[in-house]
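From the shared-data thread, chain only:
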Amino acid sequence: MRILTLLSVVLLSQNALAQSTFPTAQCQISTPYIPGQSLKKVNLSNQQQILVSADQAEINYPDRARYMGNVHFYSGDTFIQADNAEYSETDNLFSATGNLHYQDETITLTSNSLTTSLDGKHTELLDTKYWLNGMMVHGQSDSFKVDQGRYLILSNAQFTTCPDEQPDWALHAKEIKIDSTNAWAEVSRATLEVFDVPVFYFPYLTLPISDKRSSGFLYPTIGSSKNNGAEVGVPFYWNIAPEFDMTITPRVLTERGVQLNTEFRYLVDEQQGLFNLEYLPQDSSLDDEKRYLVYWQHAGEINENWRISSDFTHVSDDNYFNDIGSEYANKTDSQLIKNIELSYFQPDWWVNFKVQDIQVLGVNQSPYQLLPQLAFHSYQNPMGSLFEYDMFSEFSYFERSDNQQDNAARLHVEPTLRLPLNYSAFSLTSELKLMQTWYQQSDVHQEQSISRTLPQFRLHGMLNLEREASFFGRGTTQSLEPQIQYLRVPYQDQSDISLYDTALLRDDFHGLFRSHRFSGLDRIVDTDQVTLGVTTRFKDRDNKESLSMSIGQTFYLSTSEMAQQENNNDEDISDRSALAGEIDFKADDKWYFSQAIQLNKNQSEINQSKLSIDYRLSENKLVQLSHRYVKEISNSKINQLGLKAVWPVNEEWTFVGNLYRDINLHRTIESFVGLQYESCCWAIRFQAYRQLQAQYDQSSNFTLSGQEEFDSGISFNFQIRGLGSTSKQNAASMLSDGLFSYRQPYYLKN
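Structure, as tokens:
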């Protein structure tokens, strides 16, 4: 007959792998029992109690108890099943033999025998198979010991994260010692087998068994390219402290030499940043010249009011990205920013201090440095019950790094008086500015002391009309938002002012309603213009936009004298701007359409156009067709057709590809293909590309078209889950590896 006995003793089970985290990734590992299923059969009133069930029992209370036949032990979250078991308080031991099964919330074990001290500090199981519940880790060992309640020691052990009985890979080790406190595993005399073939022998190996950061080697990257030859990078991750870490990567380029890349990250209080140095001491393909990249990004709060930030990128030469490449910039980047900013914020005003330099690739003469700039902004200050005023002022000192005699100081003060009238159905804003600027220039060919005073008047009005409508048979709300702007700035000759931080801004629909045509302050264009525009939106019952359409144009009431002086292009000084329009359309949860277009003043020719059509089922299942056209840019024309795709072939294989074609020149600018295989226990990624790149002529200030050439290459990355890698690779991330990265083309408001 079955005997039930309650013993008021404590059995402390230990699980040294409780902190381990490995991806489950739609994978299942079959364990002998469903975790927790057996524990539901009993209801212990006290977690310190043990419930024992057996066919027979011999009890010498309180010293010794023996249980024979179909023994079940329940204690807290622990369940043990065996053929026979014995408890001895005198020897401070609990033992079980025969068809042994052990289970708690984190681990499942089967074994021939178990012996454990009642304090749980010393436990040993023989001929053991183990599974981490809810994780991908399992294996077997000749012996399975818990020492001092902290160390888990497996002798002649197998370790894998593959779900199958015949795993794709397995680590066979003479001994695995796991420190549950520090979440580290020390592996001695281990052989890595892939598909039952020994591929590597480790005399000694350390592995993290949790998601805690740990020092050690990461998976290498292997590839080949036309420019660099064979490439091998072996990263080493150094966990310096909780707030600091560094990745050190020696990178062998057979055509150039050995490059050392270091990435240092920090997070101290409210300050965080990243510092990276890439250094190639001798480039054998470039007369043994040293080549390097320095990158620093920082953002932080000093206190409630003070903020500090930095964005710094510098390379040794103009062709660094074309030749060597870097993940911190794209091969198409031509300007590298170096700045540091310190800001002080109050609810209605703020002060900003900035130092900035720009490295322009392919240009001999360096641009002006900003050493420094101090700006003050005060905004929306009430003046009476109707009016408000803003104040913007800025002092900037400019200097060329290659010619310190070429410098200038600029002081700008810009008070604004505004009358805002805002209602639910319409708004009307009247704005008057006075822009006062003083220059002190060193250029002997320009006037050295200049004072410029320009008023600006702006009137902007907008209506917001709504109605209930039907859109493709669905109930929707349509809004109509017409707007009008009048802008007036008188003419003043500015030809004696050099260009320090000023460039012409490109127009789009939203740019039509800007109050300036140049960035910076060195050029303020005279104008007398009216801009008309209208936007319509369709929103569903959840107030999510499905369609947004905008169109607008600027009409010049008089010809800009500055435009006549600086540009003889009839299009630029015509009586109207290009007609600009934008469309964003979400047909359903899968299909998206977006286009921005500009037509000339007669609407007979396209000046610029950007078009994209997206079919997007998920992050890893999308196709995008795009077209880009610019009538004239840098004395050339852009007419490109692009295709990007990410698509799973099956549960394990994913295809990624893109193709960009120059329609005018009948050539492919870039082609890229990637294949990724990912299973529960290992993953491999293969990439191949061919792309056009232009080499800068080091002795000229422009790029010679005759120096354009194609670079091609391949690379692959291999990961074994559970050996230093726990995260899934996102196949869609490969879309950012090419010249033209993927961007979602729709900006509908939700």
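Residues 3-212 form a domain with the lipopolysaccharide transport protein A fold fold (CATH 2.60.450.10).
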